[in-house]
Amino acid sequence: MRRYAPFIIVGLVAALAIGGGAIFYRTKLAANPPLKISKEVAETKDTGHVLGPANAPITLEEFGDFQCPPCGKLSEPINQLQKQHNLRVIFREFPLPMHSHAREAACAAEAAGLQGRFWQMHDLLFREQPVWSNSPDARTLFNAYAGMLQLDLDRFKRDMDSSEVQQQVEMDRGRGTQIGVQTTPTIFLNNQAVPPEQLKPENFTEYVEAAVKNAKPSS
Amino acid sequence: MKKDQIEKSRPERSRGEIIFYAAAALIALVGLAEATYLTVIFLSGETAVCGSSPDCFKVLGSSYAKIGGFPVSGLGALAYFSVFTFAIFAAFAYSRARKFFNLTVFTMFAVTVWLLFVQAFRLHAFCRYCLFSAALVFLLTGLVVARPSSIQRNP
After folding, report:
1. Residue A175: its H or E element
2. Which one, out of A64, A115, B94, B128, has a CA that is 20 to 30 A from the CA of A143?
3. Which residues, including other chains, have CB under 8 Å from residue B72's CB and lie 6 or more apart?
4. What is the mean pLDDT of chain A?
């Protein structure tokens, strides 16, 4: 019996680790059922920033945080997919409280949006994410980015603190919370949430392209 | 008869040695639980967070957190399971297991030092889960290095 004891102990631990992991995985998935944007929410007044035609076969709606690294990694693939497949892309602010500069960055993008440069600031913020994320004074960098985009700097600074911009961020966050968004990036394709494992850059393009292939153009 | 011969070919371990390998197995079990937790979080498409600190997010969401799409925490789980297996077999007087046990612990030590370097100098962020795992590996290495010579000399 003693001869088999180590095999039994190791086998039990292996079974426990695999079984426990599998149960935990299933519990996690059950706790986070796939999100969906309900018809009522989808039909409420659209306040997000939109790229692409209104009748595009695929609408990609992202709840993003400019300081979240996975959002940054998906930014370029989304831009490319938008251009290649003429997608309708909607971006909504969902700054997470754990990111120290995320809210300020969201306000910077919205303030740039008031001067018609939201998407340029959006791309710049994601491209420069490693720089301003680690800066103790991100605001100075945002002002510099506004300068690079040839915005009216005084207006940009005023707008960043304005109630209009704050409200816009809050409205986007509120919409996300209403749907059940908890983390970023959360992306919907035609109101259906993209499964988390497909949000990895290596899977995402393929996933969206499959959705484009299956989608019937809406008339 | 054959069974007896096999039993006799494995020398008895001293009490100290059994305690030593049991302690190592316990530490490996804690590491296995933590690494399994992180692997499941990774597989469910999330990135573990540490309260309001962005550091875990930075480290576990970085490209260093996976090798060829496979999570480093998964490799950690395999390594901890190996240490547990070798420790149990060594405790039951399987001589070869001791060699593999030492080899695995030292390899884990080297990988841990590399991962700490990455966190300190490349990512400029420390993840609490990784630091806890590093502490476990250092504890295991410390046990192996500081093991009483009476235990080391035993065949």
Report:
1. helix A163-179
2. A64
3. B64, B65, B66, B115
4. 88
